[in-house]
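User: For a reading group we're discussing how well predicted structures match intuition. Take Transposon Tn3 resolvase. Before you show the prediction, I'll give you the sequence so everyone sees exactly what went in.
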Amino acid sequence: MPRIGYARVSTIDQDLDVQLVRLKAEGCAIVRSEKISGASRDGRAELATVLPFLRPGDELVVTRLDRLGRETRDVLNVVHEAEQLGASVTVLDPHVSTRGEMGHVVLTVLGMVAQMERRFIKERQREGIARAKGVGVYTGGQRRLDRERLRALHAAGHGPSVIAATLGCSRMHVYRIL
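Assistant: Thanks. Here is the predicted 3D structure of Transposon Tn3 resolvase, as structure tokens, for the group to look at:
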């Protein structure tokens, strides 16, 4: 029964190493990873690659449930799709698997908690920004990309793929800035 790992972090600044090491240590022969928000399934190419690859008896393994998604519906859809293919889903922390009946109940509850947590975080963030604006200290988020360097690479004749690889971003991000 092959174990296939899936690791995800939300931004390019975050590190996947801890998840990758843990999944390999758990016996995952294949591990797919990506750096993209878990707020929705849109744009999550690696997850879209893993799901149809699952075969009966396979096990999709993630370190934490929020790596699959932040919305309960998304998490349950991933679990459902895996099960339709005859595979199971295992979360390592806390250890829950869809092999048993209670696993479904626990995953549903954990998915709801993850969704609530995301809403609380966004609410606190909005409140913090409003307070900072009120006292005149909010200047907006910091840019994650050096736009001048991006434009310089473009002016030097480099294409979007090369620029994206050099700066560690997506081609779409390059196109948006250009």
